Every structure is written in C-alpha cells, then in structure tokens.
Amino acid sequence: MTTRFLTAFASLALLAACQSTGGLGASDARTAPGVNARADGEDGLIVGHRLMESGEYELALKAYMRAAGEVGINADVLSAIGSANLRLGRLGQAEQILRRAVKEDSSSVPALNNLGVVLMERGKPAEARLIFQQAYALDSGETDSIRENLRLAIAQSEANVYEEPQEEPNFSLVRRGQGQSVLLSQL
Question: Pick from 30, 69, 97, 148: CA 20 to 30 A from residue 159's CA?
C-alpha cells in the first residue's frame, strides 16, 4: 500500500514540475517584466526625492548615498542627505552635513533653508535667523516657506533677547520631626 502511495505521489510531483507556472518565460499581463541589466538605472537623487515625498526617509537616505557614489559628493547630494537625516530626527548629523553642503556651495538655497531648520530645532534661533536671511536674499523672497521660516526665526530670536530672565525658585529642605523632611519654595 505504501509503495502505491509513494508511486502516485511521485507521479503527481513530476506532473506538477512539468506544468508551466508563468516563470521568467511567461509574457502574460500578470507577471512583472524582465530586468534589463544593461539599461541605466534611475538617478539616485530623483529616486530619493520621490521617496522623501512619500515619507520613506530611510530609503531616501539610501538612494542619496547611492547618488553620492554615482555622481560624487556635491552640494546637492549633501543637501539631500542632510534633509533625510533631518526628517529622521538625526539633528547632529544633519547639521554637520548641511554645513558641509553650504561650504561647498554658499548659494544653495535648499541647503541654507534646511540648515536653518536644523538650527531652529536645536535651539539656535539667532544663528538660524542669519541663515534664513541668506536663503531669503538668494531666493529673492519668492518661496513662502523660506519667508515663514525667517519670520519664525526672527520672532523667536527676539523673544530670547528681550525676554526677562525668570527668577529661579530658591528651594530649601526643612526637617520636621521623626525623620520627615519637607521641600519648601521661597521666591
């Protein structure tokens, strides 16, 4: 009985192996087209920009790194890498890379704007204000987001300058019988 079962199973397996499953040679509409290894790939910067728009920041960073390998390190690539790091919350890395991008091309408006955003996020509104002013001047005030960033940086840097220092409360520890202590605040 078991030999019959094994023979039947083996013949079904052979028949299944002979069936066309639509593999690489199939040309119906349900299968993906083949890959042309000789064709040029899509530009890494373009792919990265599309991924950034769709919220895939880690994949965008990888695409930007690939672009750096393909076209070399330039202000556009550095600005893109810095922007991806900014979106990923890696503010220290973003600041370093964006400063390098601005050093490569001091007229790069996107790099200046993104550096200003990083500086605002890191609590440096006075420096961010200067950076946004440069970006605004180079952009001739045409981009609304840069104008709004500059306005916010001005407001925040002025608030920090003119804000009166808050008086720190003076805390003292008072002992009350049987090992109990109370923390009192004296303003």
Answer: 97
Q: What phi-psi label fits residue 177: left (phi over 0), alpha (psi between -120 and 50 degrees) or beta?
A: left
CA distance 145 to 132: 10
Q: Is residue 172 part of a domain?
A: no
Domain that holds residue 61: 43-163
Half-sphere exposure of 84 (CA within 13 A, CB side): 23
Q: d(Cα 66, Cα 69) in Å, to the nearest integer? A: 5
User: Rounded to an integer, what distance in angstroms lies between the CA atom of residue 55 and that of residue 46?
Assistant: 14
In-domain check, residue 32: no
**Separation CA 132–CA 113 (nearest Å):** 6
CA of 162: how far to CAs of 1, 122, 125, 158, in Å?
95, 20, 13, 6
Residue 87: give its domain's CATH number. 1.25.40.10
Rg (CA), the chain: 31
User: What's the maximum distance between 2 C-alpha atoms anywhere in the chain?
Assistant: 95
pLDDT tens column, 26-61: 455 565 556 566 666 688 899 999 999 999 999 999
